[in-house]
Specification:
Chain lengths: 212, 217
């Protein structure tokens, strides 16, 4: 049961974390995923805002969330939702902490969610190095068109029951990630649009510190 | 440790509560408190759940209720948009469309739907008693279809409303408190559940919308 939940978290986090590949993916379309791996080594930091829209049949209009990403090589990450539900994941030196907003402050999530995210981190580290086509749980393809699309389809039957596919759309010739769509099923998908993406800009180390 | 002890004591105190007497006081002349939505509507809440040991988690809950048909549709998702649970319940019975841990237990799903029904839909049972509790609060008591009781209580001073569900043996099982400060009872809802694994929910309204009476689906 835990693995089913963990796998699902992986997929969701995967879509979000693929932002980290945007710089490298930009140059990958000429060739293949090996190019991504080469180019990703040039990313030292990355930060971006994101707008997430959740589409479901039960919702007549999408539920909109907003947040911000920070990444610093080799292994620091901050993934923060600021509204409507505040939550935060901080990964640093292979340690992960998850927080939720309660009674006016961020408190650590001790329900096991953080440990689930640790599994995700191991996955993400691979992706940050451009190795997102080497996970046997997914089949990754690049589709060349005006707005190139990377598609991840679960190869693992345990995962395919929860997520049908993940689509990453790149924008323009430089291939900056425009959006990520996570399809969970019929009439149920999550779209994340990334804006104000900055690569290799300095990030205050406090961003990756634990919340006191 | 202190928090855990207080939490445990609260639960124990709750579980010791039994069906309180209602003083009819001359068949009190008041309208029964009615916080429930009167129309088909959608409600989106942030939900913080607490379990013993001060374990907390958060989620977003979407609920569509139809008072006319007693139908409920609901979804629970994480901040990341991951749908943990999705189900419909109505005259045709409970249909779980999606259930990930910990919602993949039938008992959890059943309790979740029962909690939603308690919060959003007026009691279906007959009004059995009406009057005042010992603290002066106006109360209407309904016989639950499972043999228990549901009290809907209006607090005179705060204008808050409470719902209390008791088992057939008179043990308090659920306590729901609506805060009336924002003039929308569903702006802030608190639920305290007394089970083998007790839990509480704090719900904050994110958005609501009245829907067409006759849905296409």
């Amino acid at each position: 049961m835990l693995m089913r939940g963990a796998g699902f978290y992986k997929l969701f986090s995967a879509a979000a974390m693929l932002l980290l590949l945007c710089g490298s993916a930009a140059f990958a379309l000429e060739d293949d995923f090996a190019k991504i791996r080469r180019e990703s080594s040039g990313i030292r930091t990355l930060q971006a805002d994101f707008v997430q829209k959740k589409f479901m049949k039960i919702l007549s209009k999408p539920l909109v969330s907003e947040g911000r990403f920070y990444y610093e090589a080799p292994d620091s990450l901050r993934w923060e939702y600021v509204k409507p539900l505040k939550s935060l994941v901080i990964i640093r030196k292979n340690q992960i902490k998850r927080y939720l907003y309660s009674e006016g402050k961020m408190i650590e999530d001790r329900t096991g969610g953080a440990q689930t995210m640790k599994i995700v981190l191991q996955e993400v580290v691979g992706w940050m190095n451009g190795r997102f086509d080497q996970n046997p749980s997914f089949k990754a393809t690049l589709i060349r068109k005006a707005t190139p699309v990377i598609t991840l389809v679960p190869a693992d039957k345990n995962l395919s029951g929860f997520v049908e596919k993940i689509e990453i759309t790149l924008a323009g010739s430089r291939g900056v990630v425009k959006s990520v769509k996570i399809f969970e099923g019929t009439d149920n998908f999550t779209q994340i649009n990334f804006v104000r993406v900055q690569t290799n800009a300095p990030i205050d180390s406090a961003v990756f510190q634990d919340v006191p | 440790m202190k928090k855990q002890l207080v939490s445990l004591l609260s639960v124990l105190l709750l579980s010791c509560q039994t069906l309180p007497a209602i003083d009819p006081a001359g068949k009190a002349m008041f309208a029964c408190p009615f916080p429930f939505p009167g129309e088909r509507s959608r409600w989106v809440h942030s939900i913080e759940s607490r379990m013993p040991g001060d374990q907390r988690s958060s989620a977003i809950g979407v609920t569509v209720i139809n008072p006319a048909t007693q139908a409920i549709s609901c979804a629970v998702m994480t901040a990341e948009g991951m749908v943990l649970f999705e189900a419909e319940d109505g005259p045709g019975g409970l249909q779980v469309k999606r259930a990930l841990p910990p919602f993949d237990s039938g008992e959890v799903a059943k309790n979740l739907i029962a909690d939603i029904r308690l919060i959003f839909l007026a009691p279906r049972g007959l009004l059995e008693d009406k009057g005042f509790l010992s603290n002066g609060a106006a109360a209407c008591r309904y016989r639950d279809e499972t043999g228990g009781w549901i009290d809907v209580i209006g607090e005179d001073q705060s204008e808050d409303v409470q719902i209390r569900r008791y088992s057939s043996s008179g043990t308090l099982k659920r306590q729901v408190r609506f805060s009336h400060k924002s003039k929308n009872f569903y702006q802030r809802v608190e639920l305290q559940a007394d089970e083998i694994y007790p839990y509480s929910l704090e719900m904050e309204l994110l958005e609501t919308r009245t829907l067409k009476k006759n849905p296409k689906h």
